[in-house]
Design goal:
It is built from 7 helices and 12 strands. The protein is of the alpha+beta class. The radius of gyration is 19 Å and the shape is globular.
């Protein structure tokens, strides 16, 4: 998506937040104390796609680096993937369902339009004390949700927030479109965001905790048509015609998205370094969204 965010993970004492032109600010006083992920068992290889459309393993690898992607089973929905990832993150953070104050689920492929997928995750976890909310920000949804969790924790409105990014994008992928069908798969990741004083270091994962230093958010609605699902919402409700026209599948302008994604990622990275007083050589790992790499 033509949006960018940066997170720098370094000791809090090094942070020196600076002002930015976009929505940005320090995340001091916030820790991530447990991570989890889940990938469904189904796999779509490049060879599988070559049997569907005019493409090849070599062509896909050269342009995307992708060799395979995971696919949810027919009886799995986005919330099912989210629950698997959530349980793993909560176990690593030594957090019980009733300890959670909030559940945030970032997704573009919810189980249903209503209720929110976060409520379905809450139900399956048994986290009856928690608030629940979905975040819709496309490819950057997980980072938007992380920053939202950070704001709640720093404001004292929550102590433990479960943040989940989960997608079943194969359900909205057009396998007749060689430009887009090579890109998308299904999976989920989760993190437990807490205030540092209650973050737990367990003997099994003594170095798990990370402190969030800084976030920068941005959006450009002028480029909204670069990635869209044209029908199924209030602008163009579902009908027999929209189904015939294949308007419920994800569409994208790959070349334009690539240009935007790479440029915005570089801008956000530079902004994060400047705001935290870090230099490029101080960074050990960069973990970008794939299109931004």
């Amino acid at each position: 998506m033509p949006v960018a965010e940066t997170h720098a993970d370094r000791p809090v004492a090094q942070a020196d937040a600076a002002s930015a032109t976009r929505l940005a600010g320090p995340d001091l006083g916030v820790s991530v104390s447990g991570f989890g992920y889940y990938l469904p068992e189904g796999v779509i290889t490049n060879a599988d796609l070559a049997r569907m459309v005019d493409t090849s393993d070599q062509w896909i690898i050269e342009r995307t680096g992708i060799r395979s992607r995971h696919r949810a089973a027919s009886d799995q929905a986005t919330s099912d993937l989210a629950v698997h990832a959530s349980r793993r993150a909560m176990e690593k953070a030594s957090v019980r369902p009733m300890d959670l104050d909030m559940i945030l689920v970032a997704t573009a492929t919810p189980d249903t339009p209503v209720p929110a997928t976060s409520c379905l995750v809450q139900r399956e976890l048994g986290a009856w004390r928690s608030a629940a909310m979905d975040v819709g920000a496309g490819c950057t949804g997980f980072l938007y949700a992380m920053h939202t969790a950070s704001c709640f924790v720093r404001a004292g409105a929550a102590r433990r927030v479960l943040v989940v990014g989960a997608e079943t994008l194969t359900r909205v992928t057009d396998y007749a479109d060689r430009r887009s069908c090579i890109l998308f798969g299904d999976g989920a990741g989760a993190a437990v965001v807490t205030s540092p004083e209650i973050a737990v270091h367990t003997p099994r994962t003594p170095d798990l905790r990370l402190d969030l230093l800084y976030t920068a958010l941005g959006a450009d609605g002028r480029e909204a048509a670069l990635i869209d699902i044209p029908s199924g919402g209030s602008r163009r409700p579902a009908s027999e015609q929209t189904v015939r026209d294949r308007e419920h599948f994800l569409r994208l302008d790959g070349t334009a998205v690539f240009r935007q994604a790479v440029r915005r990622m570089a801008e956000a990275a530079r902004e994060g370094l400047e705001a935290t007083g870090l230099r490029p050589e101080d960074i050990d790992w960069i973990l970008p969204h794939q299109a931004n790499a």
